[in-house]
Structure of Uracil-DNA glycosylase:
Amino acid sequence: MPLPDEPNPVCVLSATARIVICGQAPGIRVHNTGLPFNDPSGVRLRDWLGVDRETFYDPDKFAIVPMGFCFPGYDAHGSDLPPRRECRETWHDRVFHSMPQIELVLTIGQYAQAYHLGSRRRASMTETVLNWRDYFEPESGPSILPLPHPSWRNSSWLKKNPWFAHDVLPLLQEKVRILTS
């Protein structure tokens, strides 16, 4: 099935960044501007990370590799479709192999968590994020921190799960400060 719009891959690869942000796929605003997280979700994500816009878009500090590089289109209800599988199948192993310096992988949403955590992922996104400690201090490889999507649609999830703001975000901000200094 072809993409609904012309392909416009939106990702940031880096040979120096120690943090990679792994989301789902660009929305239409990001597709049109070519700038990842150039939307209200990006504002919330930068707040979670404790960084300004300039730092966030510095490829020496952050790589950004969504599960789908192009806008996948809308479903019958007007919601974004899931990331296209062929993008992950074609590119992701190669992309991550080319960035061995990565020390922290931020997995945003279920598709990124499924790829990066595999069978270690829990039954729900909430359970996966709640058990973040299981992935954050690995015996080998980079730390992985599962996050909910920073979309406004998840505002009720954030209210129902105050532990995320109290327990996860301070640790995330400290780790980001260390790895971007």
Observations:
- The longest helix spans residues 163-180.
- DSSP finds nine helices and four strands in the chain.
- The longest strand covers residues 104-108.
- The CA atoms of residues 108 and 136 lie 14 Å apart.
